[in-house]
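re: ur question from yesterday

yeah so i grabbed the chain u mentioned. its 199 aa long if i counted rite. heres the sequnce exactly as i have it in my notes:
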Amino acid sequence: MATPTITVMLAGVGGQGTILAADVLAKTAVAAGLDVKLSEVHGMAQRGGSVDTAVRFGESVASPITDPGCADHLVAFEMIEAARQLPYVKPGGRLLVNSRIIDPLPVLIGDTEPPTGVEEALVDAGAIFMDAEELACEAGSPKSANIVLLGALSTGLEFPVELWTGVISARVPTASVEFNLRAFELGRRACGEGGACLV
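ran it thru and got these structure tokens back, copy pasting raw so excuse formatting
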């Protein structure tokens, strides 16, 4: 029986480490012997614009393109981007959201009002919220919130923990390996058996 194609979308803004997280996920899937396709969309990433990445993996993946209603998992690094990507999540899909809001540039410069109803829409969609920054600080590195979110994601995928930790150790700077491995474990615990964000 063929391994079904799984689609994971990662959504955030520039500077949050979404691209590194997507790369770790893709490399972990490759290490598991799967075919992987990856697509990225950058919107003024260095200025805090949207950065969305789709990682698709399975026995044979025909295209990196993700259509609305097709994502098995959405990992959102902040709440506004989570709400913006909701149409891509399939019915029954898993929605992991960092419980943080980063106002977009038009709001920051006063051109528009902050969006309303974001949290309510995510709650209605069954979002699983976690404070990735707090867990990253607990791990010893506030920059490792992206790896915390990967840890949470990993509880919903079938890759062995050893594959994840091996890829993380090889991908992040040597000086930050210990912090990032701890961040990954804290993310797993947060969504693990009996954890606060257990589905």
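noticed a couple things. The chain has one domain: 6-102+115-190. also The longest helix spans residues 18-31.
anyway ttyl
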